[in-house]
Amino acid sequence: MTLFTFFRSSAAYRVRIALNFKGLTTDMVSIHLQKEGGLNRKPEFRAINPQMRVPALRLDSGEVLIQSLAIMEYLDEVHPQPPLLPRDPVERAKVRALAQLIACDIHPLNNTSPLRYLKNVLGQEQPKIDAWDHHWILEGFEALEPLLGKGRYAFGNEITLADICLVPQVANARRFKVPLDRFPRIVAIDAACRELPAFEKARPENQPDAE
Ligand SMILES: N[C@@H](CCC(=O)N[C@@H](CS)C(=O)NCC(=O)O)C(=O)O
């Protein structure tokens, strides 16, 4: 398999964690999202993923999967151990809800394309863009914090998709200097996850394309 990734991409970070957690290895192709206006926008990558975003996972069959949540659920179906979701349907829905709160409602608002649009098309200055970024992360984390139980991880004492989405979003918040003192559960879960080799190995600074 080949993972199209970028060290700083939160969505690719999720898939890197899931691959490590399952003990799977892939070839890695780095797609620089800033260089030359974004190498993801070049025809070569557009032919792989018409959405021009990372991650994309090319399977050995040549089939290409996109969207980190879909990729991770695919990996979980094909390599069920260790699982990324609990067995109980209600619990599965709860874990997916935590993952989607982050991946669908927080992350898209601080992603490269919308921030670039705010700056280049709407002419916003950096302080306003930072305020936008902080606002949506803080509002999302306010909702997430009380939804996290009392276990070691986001949903009990086993790693799930929710943790795999939480850790990259916390890294993103720290990169944008969002204050996290109001979120003791989020901070504790992030720290507990980062003790695990699967998370450590997937960190942006540990990638071959890190700058
Ligand atoms: N919902 C997608 C998000 C993918 C995504 O937006 N990736 C970002 C990096 S984190 C990207 O490639 N951005 C390029 C751009 O916005 O131009 C997923 O979960 O895979």
Name its key features:
4-stranded mixed sheet; 50% helix; 7% strand
Cα-to-Cα separation, first versus last residue: 25 Å
Unreliable stretches covering 5 or more consecutive residues? none
Bound molecules: glutathione
Proportion of β residues?
Answer: 5-15%
Helical content band: 40-55%
Rounded radius of gyration (Å): 17 Å
User: Which structural class best describes the helix and strand composition?
Assistant: alpha+beta
List the helices and strands and how they pair.
Blueprint: E1 2-5, H1 10-21, E2 27-30, H2 43-46, E3 56-58, E4 64-66, H3 68-78, H4 89-106, H5 112-120, H6 126-144, H7 161-175, H8 184-194, H9 197-202
Parallel strand pairs: 1-2
Antiparallel strand pairs: 1-3, 3-4
Question: Could you describe the 3D structure shown?
Answer:
The chain starts with a strand and ends in a 9-residue tail after the last helix. Helix 1 (10-21) links the parallel strand 1 (2-5) and strand 2. The model has no long low-confidence stretch (mean pLDDT 97). The protein has helices at residues 10-21, 43-46, 68-78, 89-106, 112-120, 126-144, 161-175, 184-194, 197-202; strands at 2-5, 27-30, 56-58, 64-66. By secondary structure, the chain is α+β, with helices and mostly antiparallel strands. The longest helix is centred in the middle third of the chain and has 19 residues, at 126-144. Helix 4 runs antiparallel to helix 6 and helix 4 packs parallel to helix 7. The structure holds glutathione. The site of glutathione (GSH) has 16 residues, from helix 1, helix 3 and helix 5.
